[in-house]
Amino acid sequence: MTLSVDARTSEGLVEARAWGPGAGWALDQLPALLGADDDWTGFEPRHPVVAEAWRRHPHVRLSRSGRPFESLVPTIIEQKVTGKEAFAGFRDLVRRYGEPAPGPGRAAGLHLPPTPEQVAAVPSWAWLGLHVDPARSRALVTAARHADALDRIVARGADGGADTADALDRALRSLPGLGAWTSAEVRQRTLGDPDAVPFGDFHVAKDVGWALTGQEIDDREMAALLEPWRPHRGRVVLLLGAAGLRRPRRGHRASLRGHFPHV
Questions:
Q1: What pLDDT does 131 receive?
Q2: Which helix (H) or strand (E) holds 89?
Q3: For residue 125, how many C-alpha atoms fall within 13 Å in the half-sphere facing its CB?
Q4: Distance, CA of 99 to CA of 101 (rounded, Å)
Q5: How far apart are CA 45 and CA 16, in angstroms?
Q6: Which of 31, 111, 197, 254 has its CA 20 to 30 A from that of 219?
Q7: Rounded CA gap, 54 and 35, in Å?
């Protein structure tokens, strides 16, 4: 399915068209995908930095795709690697194993993300050429085999509320190779979970601590710092990111690694 979205900001309108199987569903899902269902009721800034970030970015919304596997694949590929490496791996996976996108997407050279069946069928040796090590490739194949079960959890909780988020969290973390960080990323993208915090991220705790306390902190300290905002802890991270409040980063950039042995 190819989806084209044109935001007419000056008119307050969004125009969308879709092609291929699932086009009707995509158009029905579009408001949620654009954050129309995101509910900020009960959120309180509680901190002058958060209040200022919210004042400057009052229209920030959490998206809800309703598609857990499509969020899970790039998230697993992102585990414990640089953004450059993760992007390269996901791009190559889509180009090599995804089908050409229907409609105008084909002419633009776009490809669909691979289905669970296509991911499960990728040979073990081929993952190395995609910059995906064995630990992540095993997690991807395992997730592909449980994709239907994840879809059923999301479908049963159509409102994407806390009960659905908890059920999806338990299901994701029961699979080998998936932990708190992966679950939070998938729940935020799939359900628009406002309480999803990516504990275990290399940067998030340090950035949140720097923005709110002036010092870098670890995950344990971030959990305590964000606790007063429950069940909207993820919104704090979202607002700080939207405001560009990140600690100064110094040092060399990591180069893109390979996983084939050097001869």
A1: 87
A2: helix 83-97
A3: 1
A4: 6
A5: 34
A6: 254
A7: 16
| Confidence (pTM) | 0.89
Please, which pLDDT band fits residue 159 given cuts at 50, 70 and 90?
A: low
Number of C-beta neighbours around residue 10 at 10 A? 6
- pLDDT at residue number 250: 65
In this prediction, residue 75 has a pLDDT band, given cuts at 50, 70 and 90, of: very high
Which tokens sit at 153?
A: 């959890």
Written as one letter, the residue type at 51 is A
Residue in this structure with the two tokens 């630990």, named with its chain if needed: 135
What six digits make up the tokens of 40? 């900020």
The predicted structure's pLDDT at residue 256: 47
DSSP lists the bridge partners of residue 100 as 111
Among 90, 93, 92, which Cα is nearest to 79's?
A: 90
Cβ-based neighbour number of residue 222 at 10 Å: 23
Element (H, E) at 2: strand 2-8
Q: What is the rounded distance in angstroms from the CA atom of residue 143 to the CA atom of residue 123?
A: 15
* Side chain identity at residue 100, one-letter code: P
